Amino acid sequence: xxxPTVHPAQLIVDLGFGFIVSGALATAAELGVADHLEQxxxxxxxxxxxxxADAASLYRVLRLLASAGVFSExxxxxxxxxxxxxxxxxxxxxxxxxxxxxxxxxIFWAPAGALTQTVRTGTxxxxxxxxxxxxDHLASNATAGATFHRGMxxxxxxxxxxxxxxxxxxxxxxxxDVGGGHGGFLIEVLRSTPSVRGVLFDHPHVLDEARIALxxxxxxxxxVAGDFFQAVPSGADAYVLKRILHDWSDAVCVDILxxxxxxxxxxxxxxxxxxxIPPGSAPHGGKVLDVMMLASLPGRERTEEDFRKLFAQxxxxxxxxxxxxxxxxxxxxxxx
Length: 336
Hints:
Elements: H1 8-16, H2 18-31, E1 42-43, H3 44-51, H4 55-67, E2 71-73, E3 78-81, H5 83-86, H6 97-103, H7 106-112, H8 115-121, H9 126-130, H10 134-140, H11 142-164, E4 174-178, H12 184-192, E5 197-202, H13 204-207, E6 221-225, E7 238-242, H14 250-263, E8 269-274, H15 285-296, H16 304-313, E9 316-323, E10 329-335
Parallel strand pairs: 4-5, 4-7, 5-6, 7-8
Antiparallel strand pairs: 1-3, 2-3, 8-10, 9-10
């Protein structure tokens, strides 16, 4: 049965109140409520004892989240896990607790609160609010940086396998994951294509938490520290830029792509793994992410034509866009 259409006035009110639901979700994640429901339903009073909270206040937050399907509440006021809140458990397969803590931290909501100024001026308010550009702030604030990197790894773990299996890497001898973080995507590439060797390329402090050795892939993968604004390792057949270009302006992206173009082996290719916003007004996750970028970073989400223009300026040609089961697509470019 088709759900009745939401009245336009209710739609606007619900959208306006969206930040309250986000705050409630962040509270449940930070307190670890889902972890304390793993053994079965509990009352808000019992949960409050477990997590160190005020029972009445916690009840009101959980009641709201239950109305959104995050938890369930029975007639006796006991709360239980749902498939959604299972993903808030710290040890759950595919846990999104770290992702929620990342997405709801002040580096995103504070600049979003200044979005009107950003739209008026074309310059986001992040540096005015935090004193430094986005990534400089993360580098200087250990807590914010750790929360961000853990959250990104959490999101990536859901999508890495399906995305890696959407592309045929069998023709590649070596793949460089540029700005590859802790190595989650490259691990899936190496698993899916045993003939490939990998290079995980990122800043030293990021590589300190790389998971390559833990996965038993050290013999097939080299960790290389560096800065993709300066250069990238040379001689590979494929350079992966997963969730990298969307962080930066067009001019910066062209420079990064030029580094990859100069470094890649003959017949090599660049694989940009980002959202590709389709034409039309249908809902698409990339449109939400694009406004987040507008508020906090100098980057943006792009259309196929946007990528075509970027590649052309870097001496590359867009060869194809490959959809994946995730929200991201693989946009492939080859040398002109």
